[in-house]
Amino acid sequence: MDFQDAYDHFGNHGRRVIGFAKRTFIAPAGFKFSYEELNFPLHNLTFYGMSAIMDPPRPDTAEAIRQ
User: Name one Pfam family in it (predicted).
Assistant: First the structure.
């Protein structure tokens, strides 16, 4: 099973999928990485694997949808 097949399989069964990857690089001392600025490497990563987790709806989900 390749990555996309596994991702689709778990997603179709109500699972959230988290991927793990690594890239070695040199950042200046004290550099602050920011998700908002996306100032970190997004390409040339080595994929290590994925984990599928269950994230069941909260008990109040049905009521929130009705509203």
Answer: Cation_ATPase
- Spatial contact of 15 and 50, defined as CB atoms under 8 Å apart: no
Listed residue (27, 28, 25, 6) closest to 17, CA to CA? 6
Identity of the residue numbered 45: L
Q: What is the pLDDT of residue 51?
A: 93
Predicted TM-score (pTM) of the model is 0.59
- 16 Ramachandran zone, left/alpha/beta (phi>0; psi -120 to 50): beta
DSSP single-letter state for residue 44: S
Amino acid (one-letter) located at 60: D
Q: What is the pLDDT of residue 58?
A: 80
- Cα–Cα distance between 17 and 15 in angstroms, integer? 6
